[in-house]
């Protein structure tokens, strides 16, 4: 995802563009189109959010989410979440992200 697209993504969900973190990987070289999946993370467990299309209304400010775009994983932390919930979603995002 280009920087302009990342900023547009975060602007749509009311946040700021993330700092880039590039990990060299053979998977980066593939042109495979993967589906985008949204997960709600509670107590360290990621549960898929079933929907035909994603909108801001799916996001609850009392919960944390990961958005798996195949090559990239984004984390959204609700405004009213605890520090433990935020740590939990970060760990879940690491488990979802593609390994090299």
The helix/strand series, from N terminus to C terminus, equals: HEEEEH
Beta strands, count: 4
Percentage of residues in DSSP E strands: 15-25%
- End-to-end Cα distance: 19 Å
Major beta sheet, strand line-up = 2-1-3-4
Name the structural class.
Answer: alpha+beta
Which value, in Å, is the CA radius of gyration?
13 Å
Summarize the SSE layout with pairings.
Blueprint: H1 3-12, E1 37-42, E2 45-48, E3 64-68, E4 73-77, H2 83-96
Antiparallel strand pairs: 1-2, 1-3, 3-4
InterPro entries: ADF-H/Gelsolin-like_dom_sf (IPR029006), Gelsolin-like_dom (IPR007123), Villin/Gelsolin (IPR007122)
Domain Gelsolin-like: 48-87
Protein name: Gelsolin-like domain-containing protein
Explained architecture:
Pfam families: Gelsolin. Strands 2-1-3-4 form a 4-stranded antiparallel sheet, with helices on one face. Strand 3 and strand 4 form a beta hairpin. The chain has 100 residues and is an alpha+beta fold.
In a nutshell, what does this entry contain?
The protein is α+β, with helices and mostly antiparallel strands and 100 residues long. Helices cover 24% and strands 20% of the residues.
């Amino acid at each position: 995802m280009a920087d302009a697209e990342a900023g547009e993504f975060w602007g749509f969900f009311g946040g700021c563009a993330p700092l880039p973190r590039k990990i060299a990987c053979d998977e980066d070289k593939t042109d495979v189109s993967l589906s985008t999946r949204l997960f709600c993370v509670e107590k360290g467990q990621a549960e898929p959010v079933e929907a035909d299309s994603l909108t801001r209304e799916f996001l609850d400010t009392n919960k944390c989410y990961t958005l798996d775009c195949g090559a990239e994983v984004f984390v959204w932390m609700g405004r009213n979440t605890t520090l433990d919930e935020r740590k939990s979603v970060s760990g879940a995002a690491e488990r979802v992200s593609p390994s090299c």
